[in-house]
Amino acid sequence: MELSENITNSFQGIAVSPGIGIGRVMKIAGPGNVAPERIDVPDAELAGELERLHAAIAATAEQLTSLQNELRRKLNNRDAAIFEAHLMLVRDRTLVGEIERRIKTNKCNAEYALYEALEHFQKVFATIQDEYLRERSLDLKDVGARLMENLTDVREAMMGLDDSRVIVAASLTPTETARLDTSRVLGFVLENGSVTSHTAILARSLNLPAVVGVPGSFLANLTGADKLIIDGFSGRVIVNPDSRTEEAYRLKARAADEFHSRMKADNALPPETLDGFSVPLAVNLDSACCDFSQMKSSGISGIGLVRTEFMFLNPHHHPTEDEQFEIYKKLLIDAGELSVVIRTMDIGGDKTAAGISTLAEENPFLGLRGIRLALRERRDLFTTQLRALLRAGVYGNLHIMIPMVSSVTELMETREIIDSLCCELEERGVEHVRELPLGAMIETPGAAMIAGKLSRFCDFFSIGTNDLVQYTRAIDRGNEHVAYLYHPAHPSVLQLIKKTVEGAKEGGIPVAVCGQMAADPALAVLLAGLGVNELSMVESAVPLVRRAIRSVSMYEAVQAAEAALQCSRSSEVEEIISDLLRERFPEVAEL
Ligand code: PEP
Ligand code: MG
Q1: CB contact set of 369 (below 8 Å; sequence gap of 6+)
Q2: I need a labelling partner for 393 at 20 to 30 A (CA). Which of 109, 204, 254, 425 fits?
Q3: In whole angstroms, what is the distance from residue 27 CA to residue 36 CA?
Q4: Measuring CA to CA, which residue among 222, 261, 256 is closest to residue 23?
Q5: pLDDT value at position 5?
Q6: Class assignment of domain 43-152?
Q7: Beta-carbon count within 10 A of 516 CB
Q8: Ligand 1 atom 6 nearest Cα
Q9: 444 lines ligand 1 (CB under 6 A)
């Protein structure tokens, strides 16, 4: 489609979730995010701003006190004293006085006054010679971020708007994303992130367009009055488009919708290759609270991944065993006979939440993440979750999956915990399942290399390619600067997938892929050719992947995979597979 050439104020970012969004901007300030919008506040409303500030201070103090108490319980007084410094800062009259002064004299909103005051004190700290004092600037940053988060009740702010908006931010943590009223979001434009960062994953599951890698200098100039077009297919972001451009994008959005409706018409057809090999397709859910009943009509084999960690991101409340039990039970009843793979909490990496871990890690992606955190630091949360799962398992076809497995010992320890929980439930006479399939996520090169050993200690594998690519190629999955290197089709990744498939065969267990790679029609064909038994993806990708699988024979897919394994570059692999698909499924090339 021809789009207007007359686009001066636009930027080419990285497309991470498809779709077109057109609407005004809503900026989100948060830890490390762009400066909040300055809003002029009339004299009569200044008292209200001061009140909001004090409410945020009280909430912050309360959170810090409860964190401190928790630490005291788990560790010792000395470690808990770290939060004492933060508490003192949040009550410090110099800081609070400076924010109040700026609200009153500059007649502005509390967020902006806080932002300015923090900037001011950071500059002061930077000039201090004493290293100890200079390091206190980190405490200030931490407390400032917490205060800002409490002040910026995004959900409330969105309720006050009369239209839906495009969210603009430097980055969004999963907690921040979870706080949004997504029914009023048109899409996301972010400075940081990549195709597998968690905001992108969430955007795709909400069917909202997202573009990342847009420079802060571009975002800083945007205000709530600006209208944006975001093109989640190409990664283009256009500010205040002329009417011709806007109309062209509205047409593009309509064409994409029509294409997807056409694909959906095949929902009743089995995901089979031309020569009759079945490649079951499952869906990924980003929350166990999703309404699954609607999705059953997409002709899927089940739920291949339920990400449960988002339940644990509210620092004020972690779900109890009974609350989790009810959530899992409902999901299992909704799914009926379909298999449901619930992954235990994968916390750590970029999925961090206040109040879960007490460690400050330099390299969180290489730290206590997933099963490591569950076994070493938060066994309490882990056993609560497992107990809820064992009880809920009675209501459906439940599979438990363990994230970030990197050793046989982790699987053995998990089995031991499950066995002892079963004994405990048995003794208490609580209804539960005794035998549950236990799966391991293969997300690191190390796990892929010992897949043959791991396969003897579990019942299925699911390859988390989002992480496997990250760890294999040493590319931070959330870092837009290295996004150009992030190619799931890289031969190094394909070799490890092959190794995993071989390892699964040794143990006689099936292997699925639940990373973003499975949602790409061309790569899905490649995975089938590599011997993967099931593909699990965001629901919106199912129709396209089904059509791709139905367009080729398994013979062709295997040949393509064998040729791909001989390549030395991802571009060569992509060429092989897109040539095949272009020939068999030409419409996909239009996307
Ligand atoms: C993966 O790593 O591919 C995966 C599915 O898990 P997550 O994206 O939640 O880390
Ligand atoms: Mg992962």
Answers
A1: 346, 347, 348, 349, 403, 404
A2: 204
A3: 7
A4: 222
A5: 35
A6: mainly alpha
A7: 24
A8: 464
A9: no
Enter the tokens of residue 206.
């909400």
The tokens describing 338, both together, are 């379909």
Query: Which residue from 533, 511, 535 is spatially nearest to 523, judged by alpha carbons?
Result: 535
How confident is the model over 57-84, as pLDDT tens digits?
Answer: 888 888 788 777 766 665 555 556 667 7
- Decide: helix, strand or coil at residue 226: coil
Fold for the domain defined by 280-436: TIM Barrel (3.20.20)
Residue count (the chain): 591
Ligand 2 center from residue 307 Cα (angstroms): 10
Q: Is-same-fold flag (43-152; 280-436)?
A: no
Q: How is residue 225 written in tokens?
A: 């009055």
> What is d(CA 238, CA 252) in angstroms, rounded to the nearest whole number?
15
The DSSP result for 340-398, as a single string, is EEEEPP--BTTB--TTT-----SSGGGSS-THHHHHHT-HHHHHHHHHHHHHHGGGSEE
Identify whether 399 is a catalytic site residue: no
DSSP percent split of the chain into helix, strand, coil, nearest 5: 55, 15, 30
> Is the CB–ligand 1 distance for residue 199 below 6 Å?
no
305 Cα nearest atom in ligand 1: 5
* CA of residue 306 to ligand 2 center, whole Å: 12
- Cβ count within 10 A of residue 157: 14
The per-residue pLDDT for range 100-141, each reduced to its tens digit, is: 999 999 999 998 999 999 888 888 877 776 666 666 777 787
pTM: 0.77
CATH of domain 437-530+555-591: 3.20.20.60
What mean pLDDT do residues 316-339 have? 92
Any atom of ligand 1 within 6 Å of the Cβ of 465: yes
What distance in angstroms lies between residue 105's CA and the mean position of ligand 2's atoms? 49
